[in-house]
Write a structure and sequence with these properties.
Shape: elongated
Distance between the termini: 93 Å
Low-confidence stretches: 151-158, 565-596, 693-700
Number of strands: 16
Helix content: 25-40%
Structural class: alpha/beta
Largest sheet: 9 strands, mixed
Mean pLDDT: 83
Radius of gyration: 33 Å
């Protein structure tokens, strides 16, 4: 197929292929002209390009085919550029027609259309018996975003506001009978410039439904490096190397590693940090959002406009998403036909996740504060408990790095193996560490936690979302460890919200027979629930393991919305010392004492951990000064938690004002039952509970 391309890149931007400077200068003059003058310039633009291309084609001495033409065109690029611009200028000068629509029509009929048809004839492109073109002429217009302004609003629907891009589209529509196939391309990802929503398109034929513009083609495959890893061939240390991780994600990382010298390789993470920042010197709010999104899996939901948001606010919010795509490495997956919004995300890229972790470490603002207060209103927090759980796990991961200072690659600070026990100790409050290590499984054998998971390791710097339940396999677990990600389960998966894979043995080969997981369930209700894991879960998770062999796994329930009730706080008024929500005692299973030896049972088991609350009382990674931000993130605010004076006497006064009723005093101290008893609901408290221990027996 014959191809005649032009490159309209901005003057100050470097790149390849080279910018067609003369043609850029010619078409830029059309920007300030009335609509028909714009169209006349665009018609002359196409005439000049194909006239100069025809001259090149006629100079091809050997067989006149598409490859020979393209080779000759590339060799004479500078001459072609100057000639095309000069021919376009001359066509405008000699166009003997009045200004306005007549001048444009004359340019189209006298110059542009005949020139395109002459090129088609010289290229051997003919019509068939059905009067259709046997072949097409590809007309790529690279960096076409320069033809369009940045932002559209409904006030732009006027002829005088049509951009050069729209004028060029109109001219191409008038050339529909020629064999031109135009292809608009851009590397800046400013898709809104090229495909504005239908309602703000300046063409009445588009807004009226007569014409349909094709949505942009946004296919952008990741992981194109062949055979990145084969099962049972690499251990954890070997996948925590920069030379391995750069093979995941977009080809940019591997190509720089493969083709760069030692300095380029050492600077790969800093290069990724610069890309996330948008090449800005300072860490802007947009850069912080990009880093948070990369690590915590933040999703825009433009199809769910928040109540009360007007059109102006909505457009401003969507523009921020476009800027994330244009400048901060966010990926467009698809744009619907209506083009009112697009579906974007930050897919799993270990190199970007490492860069994001470093950027967030440089930020003085707590991550939870940004997530709670400063997020774009179109960012879907989904289940708020899920977002909070991912944040808590990421914070624990980073804190555990200080406990497990294993350095395998000096270029990586966060992509390192972490002992599973150290990860959990970094997550939960120190007062519960011993109970964690001494806890026993609720099913299977009777090994203490410390023995069952002594040589188990996690490796994740970010999160990836399952498309469906088919990823609930050990195959998906070892592959997630290989690329340094943890799993956010698909919407509607019963019983499990996240999976953090771990490998049994730091030097064990990654495969279905060496991995297990922490299965996490999130609850953000104020009342603690009795949570039960589906009995079929282990069989399903380990179904694809060699011989169906099961491994010990952990079931972690994070009941993040649980708070100390107002009634419980008021009840503490008569106790000494006073108890406040931030000082609630941590409830754990009692340490077991027995004189009778217990036979060791090594069978794989399920180890349960239940954490009620979301405060420094139960999570070591939560700072006291960030308590309100966590409450805001979870939307867990209640009447009692909003009370400014959080002391038992003031809490009792609140309850006595009867905004709500709780069982017992002081809600019902004005009445007495016949038996003198008052039914009291179980009080909510922030605590950590582990699975069962040995049965406590009397000394014999």
């Amino acid at each position: 197929m014959f191809s005649v391309s032009v490159n309209l890149r901005e003057e100050k931007r470097a790149g390849y292929p080279l910018r067609d400077a003369a043609l850029c200068g010619f078409i830029a003059r059309a920007a300030s002209l009335p609509v028909y003058q714009k169209m006349l310039h665009c018609a002359a633009f196409i005439h000049g390009i194909f006239s100069a291309a025809l001259s090149v084609l006629e100079r091809v001495e050997i067989e006149r085919n598409a490859l020979a033409f393209r080779t000759c065109l590339d060799a004479e690029r500078l001459t072609f550029d100057r000639d095309a611009a000069a021919i376009a200028v001359e066509a405008i000068r000699t166009n003997n027609a009045p200004e306005g629509s007549e001048g444009y029509v004359n340019m189209l009929k006298t110059y542009t259309t005949p020139t395109v048809l002459k090129f088609a004839e010289a290229a051997g492109i003919r019509r068939n018996a059905q009067d259709k073109w046997e072949d097409l002429i590809l007309f790529p217009i690279d960096e076409c975003h320069t033809l369009n302004p940045d932002i559209y609003t409904q006030n732009d629907i006027k002829d005088e506001n049509r951009s050069t891009y729209h004028a060029l589209c109109s001219v191409l529509r008038d050339l529909i009978e020629t064999p031109i196939f135009a292809l608009f391309m851009s590397t800046t990802s400013k898709t809104r410039q090229l495909a504005p929503p239908v309602l703000v398109d300046p063409s009445s034929r588009v807004t009226g439904g007569e014409l349909v513009q094709h949505p942009p083609y946004t296919a952008f495959p990741f992981d194109v490096y062949k055979a990145i890893i084969v099962e049972n061939t690499r251990n954890l240390d070997e996948v925590c190397e920069l030379s391995f991780l750069c093979r995941f994600g977009r080809p940019l990382w591997w190509t720089r590693w493969h083709s760069g010298d030692e300095d380029v390789r050492k600077g790969l993470i800093k290069f990724a940090m610069a890309k996330l920042k948008g090449n800005a010197g300072m860490l802007s709010d947009a850069a912080k959002f990009a880093a948070l999104s990369t690590r915590h899996l933040l999703m825009f939901e433009p199809d769910r406009r928040p109540p009360g948001m007007d059109n102006k606010q909505y457009q401003a919010a969507t523009v921020e998403e476009y800027r994330q795509v244009a400048s901060h490495m966010r990926t467009v997956h698809c744009i619907p036909t209506h083009r009112e919004y697009m579906h974007t995300s930050t897919p799993s890229e270990p190199i970007l996740a490492e860069a994001a972790a470093r950027l967030l470490a440089l930020s003085e603002c707590p991550q939870v504060k940004i997530l709670a207060e400063d997020l774009n209103p179109l960012v879907g927090k989904g289940e708020r408990g899920e977002l909070a759980a991912r944040l808590l796990c990421n914070l624990a991961h980073d804190a555990a790095l200080k406990i497990s200072p294993i350095i395998l690659d000096e270029n990586l600070e966060f992509s390192r193996p972490i002992r599973l026990i150290h990860f959990l100790e970094a997550l939960i409050a120190p007062k519960s560490h011993s109970q964690l290590l001494d806890s026993r499984p609720v099913t299977g054998g009777n090994l203490p936690f410390r023995d069952a998971f002594d040589d188990c390791w996690v490796n994740f710097t970010h999160w990836s979302k399952m498309g469906d339940a088919s990823c609930l396999t050990t195959a998906a677990l070892w592959k997630a460890i290989a690329r340094g990600t943890a799993w956010q389960c698909c919407d509607g998966m019963p019983g499990i919200d996240q999976l953090i894979p771990f490998v049994r043995g730091r030097h064990a080969k990654l495969g279905r027979g060496t991995v297990s997981a922490i299965a996490i369930q999130n609850k953000d209700r104020k009342t603690a629930l009795k949570v039960k894991l589906d009995d079929k879960f282990p069989a399903r998770l380990f179904a694809d393991a060699p011989g169906g062999t099961r491994q010990s796994f952990i079931f972690l329930t994070m009941q993040l919305g649980v708070q100390l009730s107002a009634a419980a706080a008021a009840k503490a008024t008569k106790a000494a010392p006073a108890i406040t929500p931030s000082k609630t005692s941590v409830g754990v299973s009692p340490r077991i004492r027995t004189t009778r030896s217990v036979e060791v049972d090594n069978r794989p088991g399920r180890y349960d951990i239940t954490i009620n609350g979301c405060s420094p009382t139960v999570y070591q990674v939560i700072r006291e000064e960030d308590r309100s931000h966590w409450a805001q993130l979870l939307a867990a605010r209640s009447l009692e938690s909003e009370l400014a004076r959080q002391t038992p006497p003031h809490m009792e006064l609140l309850v006595r004002s009867k905004p709500l009723f709780w069982s017992g005093a002081p809600s019902f101290d004005w009445a007495e039952d016949a038996d003198g008893k008052v039914d009291v609901n179980e009080e909510q408290e922030e605590k950590i509970e582990f699975g069962k221990g040995e049965e406590e027996e009397d000394d014999i």
